Description:
Layout: H1 2-28, H2 30-40, H3 45-63, H4 72-96, H5 102-109, H6 112-123, H7 131-154, H8 159-183, H9 189-204, H10 218-221, H11 227-256, H12 258-262, H13 268-279, H14 286-305, H15 308-318
Helix pairs in contact: 1-11, 1-13, 2-5, 2-11, 3-4, 3-9, 3-11, 4-8, 4-9, 5-8, 5-13, 6-8, 6-15, 7-14, 8-15
Amino acid sequence: MENATDSTVTKPTIFGMLFALISVFMWGNGSVITKLLVDETYLTAIEILLFRIILGYATLFILHPKLYKIDFKEELTFLACGFTGITLSQLAQTMALNYSTAMNVGLLVYSSPIVTAGFIYLFDKSEKVGITYVIGFFLAISGIALIIFNGAFVFDLNPLGDALALVACVLWGLCCVFIKRTTAKGYNILYSTRKILFYGLITAIPLTLFMDFRFDLYPLRNATGHLGVLLIGIVGYAIGGYAIAYITWSKATKELGATKAATFLYLTPVVTMIVSFFVLRERITIAIIVGAFLVLTGLYVSGKNSLAEVKNMFAQDKAMK
């Protein structure tokens, strides 16, 4: 009888861990896949963004076509999520990869939870800033500074890339504040993601008039030699990152609980570093390792006293990246 009880507890836990690892692996590959698109295809940042949003939205609509009636104020919240988290943040992240490495961009963008917690402390006066958040914040900032220093002086990278990655990080943190308001309404996860992608598309379309978007679809018509990269980077990540990773993460949080599942997010930048090293041949220096350690330690320490849902919100938002 005792063995039967143990197996009942262990089996869901193992599956929950597996689901979490699948999601983390997909999200950890995001910067690497986008870097391949930027370096090896004719696609511009706005083209990558729009093609991914369209395919991601279509996939989510097929998986969950149900519509909900929501009021105007909630529509504005979804609009804010789409504009900050999809259009501006992802555009800045993709543009950053023109100047920096996937490793640097991934590490900087994945600092978002500590930024989110800071915004929540700023906007929600009932929340008090704890000493652990302050310590964690300065640890993370030290790691970020070391990563940027390594990129500028060791790899001789254009600092504009890391600056854009930090902008993406801050915008993503702001998006999480709006996400917090939508999750409180209890909408289906696939629906809320689809809704945010919709407003990301709506706010991104006007940018095609000012940015390098080719309406003749030249990059797709001239995909010879880059078809595999295009399929993985556009189709594969739109479906995997937006849909599959979101579904597996939902199952992981159901099996493990939000807090335990969120601890797997600390593996995301580690996945980015490893995949960048083997796929893109990016160098892993001592400064990168120490910087990553400081960032991850800062996130962990600040999370001990920050709002518990911050890490889970970050997990939900990563599916849209």
